[in-house]
Write a structure and sequence with these properties.
The complex is a heterodimer. Chain A has helices at 42-49, 81-88, 106-116, 122-135, 151-163, 181-196, 208-214, 232-236, 241-248; strands spanning 2-13, 16-27, 31-35, 57-62, 65-70, 76-78, 91-94, 169-173, 200-204, 217-222, 225-230. Chain A is an alpha/beta fold. Chain B is mainly alpha-helical. Classes of the chains: A alpha/beta, B mainly alpha.
Chain lengths: 254, 216
Amino acid sequence: MKLLEMNHVRKAFDGTEVLKDISLSVSEGEVVSIIGPSGSGKSTLLRCATLLETMDGGELVYMGERAAWNDASGNTVYEKPAKLKHIRSYYSLVFQNFNLFPHYSVLKNITDAPLIVQKREKEEVYQEARTLLAKMGLENRENAYPCELSGGQQQRVSIARALAMNPKILFFDEPTSALDPELTLEILKVIRDLAKEKMTMVIVTHEMNFAREVSNRMIFMDKGVIVEETTPEEMFRSTNERTREFLGRYHDLG
Amino acid sequence: MSFEMMLVQLAQGMVKSLGIFMWTLVISLPLGLLVAFGRMSKNPVLRTIIKLYISIMRGTPLMLQLLVVFYGPYYLFGLQIGGSYRFIAILIGFGINYAAYFAEIYRSGIESMPLGQYEAARILGYSRGQTFFRIILPQVIKRILPSVTNEVITLVKDTSLAFALVYMEMFTIAKQIAAANTTMMPFVIAGVFYYIFNLLVAVIMEWFEKKLSYYR
Ligand SMILES: Nc1ncnc2c1ncn2[C@@H]1O[C@H](COP(=O)(O)OP(=O)(O)O)[C@@H](O)[C@H]1O
Ligand SMILES: [Mg+2]
């Protein structure tokens, strides 16, 4: 089943086209990595998928439910807010700079939205949050505040916060770019574990070895278009000049 | 007049000053937030009106504003004024003046919040109201506390401007006693009162700041 479908997405900022007719679909259990030079539109694509940004044209569908579609003149129209609120519950997003709530403890960061937004049972939410924290190796930090944690720990809390909402699909926008190499490894391990559990994920990353090992499919974007979309093996054997040139910069062409 | 007598009368004035102080805060702190929303509104008409209101409140003397609020109904509409309207006029005058100052403080605090906080809340499904009151406002309060403290300390001193409406707060009483008894003493005592008042304010605000220092 297709969890996410994006069809013919267009987006411009001040007349400059940033996404040019991008189509992308993600099935249940898939891990898709998006790579590409900075400024190629990767974040904008994730932001359109997560309704942080509005598309100029194109269609956005989660679980067969349309969030947005084209009107007769090819401009995107969005669903009503109530429906979009429902569609938001299908996904979550992990940010590059975590965006934890600094005034909330670790535990509250994770439990607040399930309690307030999803109005779930307190017992159950707390139990689930503690299980998630244990999974993230943070079982004894539940009363800490984000400012007392390392970057790697903060990012693990933010992943737990996203998972606590029980999303069907999890987006990551360069989850390790704000971290030292050492802390990067701990985050990559967490994502790898999620992949083993068949969590559906779309990951924008510059960690080529990681992307290659963890994903079922890789997408190479450049200048607002998808240049190539294929398996990791194929991607690293690509004959496409732009792909080769980009991957060559990472010295890990196999 | 004996020293004790002076003290008693001034203390009674102090209670009235404290009343102005408390009521002004109760009115202007929430009103200021509403004004800040208007100032940041998407509606250009509302935004311009609020901007004008704030600039008048900040650009003219509070004493003049108090006189306009108190005498305005009489001069403009021929309404009978006096009695309980004296205190109401003081609350209106102080309330709308301080709301303007607090609005600008709120606004600077709200605008200093990183966009990522709003985006994280949006992804997690918080409504606009939940985002503001659960995520944004608590952090804004921490950020603006030092500016609010300054404003509150100014307010303690500004309560003396109620003398312009011959309201029997401490400064008005001090002036009357001084004139009747040709002595500086009531001013000295009033000064000490104001000073202690502000020391207390400083201690309380410091306590708040400390309470909010559990995070950065
Ligand atoms: N809010 C915005 N306003 C104007 N231009 C933007 C905005 N967001 C992104 N851009 C521009 O869109 C292009 C793609 O940006 P982005 O999606 O962040 O790329 P990537 O994530 O691949 O580095 C860049 O040229 C960037 O400057
Ligand atoms: Mg980016």
